[in-house]
Design goal:
Layout: E1 2-7, H1 12-23, E2 28-35, H2 39-49, E3 53-56, H3 59-68, E4 74-75, H4 79-87, E5 94-97, H5 105-113, E6 117-120, H6 123-140, E7 143-146, H7 149-157, E8 166-173, H8 190-193, H9 203-211, H10 213-226, E9 233-237, E10 243-249, E11 254-258, H11 264-272, H12 286-289, H13 303-314, H14 318-334, H15 342-353, H16 363-381
Parallel strand pairs: 1-2, 1-5, 2-3, 3-4, 5-6, 6-7, 8-9
Antiparallel strand pairs: 8-10, 10-11
The structure holds magnesium ion.
Length: about 375
């Protein structure tokens, strides 16, 4: 029986994870739930799964939850403090990090320092300081198991293989909302950008898919997780989202992981790893899919991917700056303060303004670089 805490239980990953937990009652027990502000959903989740601890990030929501949910659950403080407490609580084996953005940085570190198995769905901290987190995980004997479909596919493909036998990773991308669209993307609306062809996800990641920044962030994340060089990661547009990624080994053999696009599979695998449980998703039917297609990404039309690769090559805090600027720019686009094509402009300007040091920053320095980059990016968002 795995005891599970979910940081971000009301988002799309959190909701899917609870569905997985509900359907594996003998194998997973929910012991903690946290969310940003959705009091109604978190209280109904808490009534159903009866976790020992609950937390709300926003103070007002935390107060509302207390009045709405009078039961046996312990209410943790609001803000990062509560998330950190939930991530490090004893009597918990797996911490699913499905928060959005850099806010998950301290909770991830707390889960690692408590030696948990971390089911990683919050990619931003792994972009900001992934190599440092992998190092910390080694030190505290924590286990990092990716939940995001592509890193999970890679993780599944490399099981049992020595690290140095990995030659190359083929990182697949759906192409996002504008893959098929012709003409300029300057005047696309928020509504159009939020229409993802294959996955139903939160707003931030859906915009990142539309700009291809998501593939850039994943490039950096998997370089950190699997000790890869930039040249070993090849991004391939694969609109069907059936091959979730593939790994080429030293002998030329390529292993891929395939399944219908359903997040419950990588979530379930992260919870049962290294074992495999019974299938919860629809079976893969190649006859109904018929065709799997592959294209090169268009780096000119989607400059965010090129910027991310540039930051990955430079290192020394650049990935952290990239991530912070992207978070700020996506937020500004979602609130209609900037255009879609301004997202890349803001990220590029922020990267250009940054003066990297000589070596890789420490975790404490990363926190400062992140704050600096957010402020800078805010300036570049102003008219
Ligand atoms: Mg992904």
């Amino acid at each position: 029986m795995k005891r599970l805490a979910i940081l971000g239980s009301t988002g799309s990953i959190g909701v899917n994870a609870l569905d997985v937990a509900r359907r594996m009652p003998g194998r997973v027990r929910v012991v903690g739930l946290a969310a940003r502000s959705n009091v109604a959903l978190l209280s109904s989740q808490a009534r159903r799964f009866k976790p020992r601890c609950v937390a709300m990030f926003e103070p007002e929501a935390a107060r509302a939850l207390k009045t709405r949910l009078d039961g046996t659950a312990r209410h943790l403080p609001s803000g990062v403090e509560g998330l950190v407490a939930l991530a490090s609580q004893p009597d918990c084996d797996v911490v699913l990090t499905s928060l959005v953005g850099g806010v998950g940085f301290a909770p991830l570190l707390a889960a690692i320092k408590s030696g948990k198995t971390v089911a990683l769905a919050n990619k931003e901290p792994m972009v900001m300081a992934g190599a440092q987190f992998v190092e910390e995980a080694r030190r505290w004997q924590a286990r990092l198991v990716p939940v995001d479909s592509e890193p999970s596919a890679i993780f599944q493909c490399v099981q049992g293989a020595p690290e140095k036998s990995i030659k190359r990773v083929i990182l697949t991308a759906s192409g996002g909302s504008f893959y098929k669209r012709k003409g300029s993307l300057r005047d696309v609306s928020v509504r159009e950008a939020l229409r993802h062809p294959t996955w139903k996800m939160g707003r931030k990641i859906t915009i990142d898919c539309a700009t291809l920044m998501n593939k850039g962030l994943e490039t950096i994340e998997i370089m950190n997780l699997f000790a890869l060089k930039l040249e070993q990661v090849e991004v391939v547009i694969h609109p069907q989202s059936v091959i979730h990624s593939a790994v080429e080994f030293s002998d030329g053999s390529v292993l891929a992981q395939l399944s219908p696009p359903d997040m419950r599979l990588p979530i379930q695998y992260a919870m049962t790893y290294p074992e495999r449980a019974e299938r919860l998703i629809a079976p893969l039917d190649l006859f109904s899919i018929q065709e799997l297609t592959f294209r090169r990404p268009d780096f000119r039309r989607f400059p965010c991917l090129a910027l991310a690769r540039q930051a990955a090559r430079m290192g020394r805090g650049m990935p952290c700056v990239l991530n912070a600027a992207d978070e700020v720019a996506v937020q500004a686009f979602l609130s209609e303060a900037i255009r879609f094509t301004d997202i890349a402009r803001v990220v590029e300007s922020t990267l250009k303004a940054y003066r990297p040091g000589r070596s890789e920053p420490s975790l404490a320095e990363i926190v400062e670089i992140d704050q600096w980059a957010r402020q800078k990016a805010e300036e570049f968002c102003r008219p």
